[in-house]
Amino acid sequence: MGDKKLDVNVEPNFGLSGALAKDTNTFKGVVIKYNEPPEAHKPDQRWFLYPFKGDESLDTIPIYRQSAYLMGRDRSIADIPIDHPSCSKQHAAIQFRKVKGKVSPYLIDLDSANKTRLNDEAIEPRRYYELMEKDIVKFGFSTREYVIMNENCTKDETNDSN
What we know:
Elements: H1 19-24, E1 26-27, E2 30-31, E3 47-53, E4 56-57, E5 61-62, E6 68-72, E7 80-81, E8 92-99, E9 102-109, E10 116-118, E11 121-122, E12 129-130, E13 136-139, E14 145-150, H2 151-160
Parallel strand pairs: 6-7
Antiparallel strand pairs: 1-2, 3-4, 3-5, 3-14, 6-8, 8-9, 9-12, 10-11, 10-13, 13-14
């Protein structure tokens, strides 16, 4: 049988390999860094992101058609592409969660290199932050700002201006 010896001192490794998660959380051949939580829920109100670049208003982004939106530079998987070079390929996610009977949007940073900011404060990675109407979200060093509002807020503002 040759001179090869079997190493009997090797300990078994029962730790998680990540292979199962890797197989189940792949989209278009890319491993997705984010998994939706059990309390994920499609919103029952219409929510929107209003992007601004300086004083210029950009196209409104509806965020009520699904329970989560992945944001990042990788256009093949991002629901909302962020093209700034300081942003990560999978930078952050907006997740709608049903907590205590109420469905609300939450922001989570996906261990991005250059942070996600909520109302000019950097948020901790891998932690949910509830978003309120008129909150401002920024990614990396991009100057683009995203204001979150729902249909009730936009209706109220339309009525106020009449």
